[in-house]
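Look over both lines:
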Amino acid sequence: MSKYLVVVESPAKAKTIKKYLGNDYEVLASYGHVRDLVPKDGAVDVTNAFAMKYQPIERNEKHVRAIQSALRNADGLILATDPDREGEAISWHLLELLTERNAMKNKTVERVVFHEITERAVREAVAKPRQVATDLVNAQQARRALDYLVGFNLSPLLWRKIAPGLSAGRVQSPALRLICEREEEIKAFIPREYWTLLAAADKGGSAFTAKLVELDGQKVEQFTVTEGPAATAARERLLASAAGQLTVGTVDKKQRRRNPSPPFTTSTLQQEANRKLGFTSTRTMRTAQQLYEGMDLGGETMGLITYMRTDSLSLSQDALGEIRQVIVKEYGNSACPPEARYFKTKSKNAQEAHEAVRPTSAMRTPKSVAKFLGPDQLKLYELIWKRTMASQMTQAVFDTVTAELRVDDKNAFRANGSVLVEPGYLAVYNVSLDVGEEAEDDEKRLPPLETGERVTLTDINADQHFTEPPPRFTEASLVKTLEAYDIGRPSTYASIISTLQARDYVRLDGKAFTPTDVGMIVNKFLTDHFTRYVDYQFTANLEDDLDAVSRGEKQWQPLLASFWQQFKPQVDEKMELKREEVSEARVIGVDPESGKPVSARLGRFGPFVQIGTKDDADKPRFASLRANQRIDTITLDAALALFELPRMLGNLDNGDEVAVNIGRFGPYVRYGSQFVSLKKDDDPYTVDLPRALELIEQKIAALEAATIVKFGDTGIRIIKGRFGPYITDGARKSPIPRSKDPESLSVFECEAYLAEAAAAKKSGKKGAKGKAKSTSAKPKADAKPKTKAAAKKPAAKKATKKPAAKKPAAKKPPKPATA
């Protein structure tokens, strides 16, 4: 019998901790959350002090039962979930669930937290237990309730007024606004031309460059020279005046010192991992979780980093002492300052009891653990280890030189140079190799220069430039901006970004986020009609209020009541909006053939262009936008080109027509009554007959190779498919009952099965003796193009027989995203 049952969140952490605590402790994992709000309206009862209705999470029920069973043989329960609000809430939910099931009778309960998974930290935590922190739980409940109230009220509104499957979230929506507003800035940006003049100089064989800073007695600004002719004239005038030489004017020599950055928080870790390693926020946090929970280092399992969800910059005294020892050992006494460095976070709600993200032991260098880690784990551990070491090292020292090089009393150039004289903390980064850290650059070196001496002017280069729009957000810059605006919390950034991508509101173009048409329209709807709730300051203030709840300074029910009293009437009011009032439409021009207007807009199945209006005598014509086209940028010519489908390419030898079109499953070639899909690189608007014939021949060859039985000229054949043999006549498909030998079937039986499958498909039933029907992947000939969204329908579930005494569980509605 175990004396105590310890519950953590993950099995990896459970395995590590079990080794430290010994036989008196059983350690099990809850596998994350064990309860959540019921996924339906009314889960937060706004009429009853915002009482929240929870239900067990089905996928984790077996783990809860295992915990319940193990608790019978233990004296007490130790809740050891993660040391943050969410971890506190998981402990509370588990305790509530166990209490409801009478599993806590005569059992003690304690709460402990581990900021690092090492034997010392685990044993110290178990020796100093506390109770579940009600304030932290209430803050998490309030956050969950707010997200639910926003999601379950705004999302259905989007479904009705814009398109099905959309969602709006309390922090997701302001993040989307950031990306969309940046896109609008880029669209509105008008580049300006400017020119720079750079002198190529030389002293004693040492070449260097200098930038023009004074022209005709005036200080040179960015837009002093804005045209090529003016730049050329200035260049020729300066070359003539200089006559091949420049005179050294003032020489300013200074020493510049650069301080190291503080150790990582959750936010800065995500930013740096994205910038240096190309990791997404999700990938960073997943890898960090693995390093925190414990790695097998050749028979010894331990956590390699402290808890990775933190906004604290502090380091423990024990850690500082060890870090300073390693600095002296690895980089010498000169790299270690006389006293440790201390950093203070600007966040007023930073949990200073936590530490920054650091190695659990500085002695474990990346090199010493490399053979035990996967590629991602090693890269991230090395990033964390270096940043931690650097934060406690001396400043880097540079000698900088600024020299004025005069043509005459009205024209001058300026040369800048720097030399790294004391690497300090930059020694950690191997500055000659590390990308992103300031490194010694031979091109920045200047030869020794003295006032009054003359140097050779070999040429003057006039270079054209254009101002550039603000850059699109990368994951790193988006996370940095979210933190600057206090939108969400660092632990939620990964889920915010993932939700935006999952909803197809934004897409990654290289490393930069671009909003989709859907994203732009959802953002416009929310900013036009729910301005307050996507306002950056409002969102930040709400986060501050939740932080105040976590500190016990505010009560959570009044906070929710204040929010709901203003939010609900606005939702009700906007329900009366007409669809055309919120579905953004852009008039592109006029169709030259019909004289009707051409517009781009978003429909229930995605973005499309339309010729004509609903008020015309004839119905409007529609065409879906291509993947790389957008409502706000598509031109008239590009829009009209979309109506060229279906394109007739020619005929086969037997007279069958060959055409190309786009169907619900993508672009395809139709030949007679048969179909073949275009490949990824084939463009339906430009593909020609030879390529279409090539694809047809490939399909015929593949079909012949997979054919088990062919019934003459009937077109019916039995094919060896990926999931077993099936019958087809090119237009219809039918599975073959498992009791039947495919090679023994007659043509009449095959025709019967095909007819049965076709009838079942039409009625929505099953075909082929109860086996789930197999639908044809062929698009309907020359069908109206539809987007992929239209094709995404849930597959029918196979019926299962249940005992008569039990009622089948009600089907759960889709759960709106509320990140």
The radius of gyration is 34 Å.
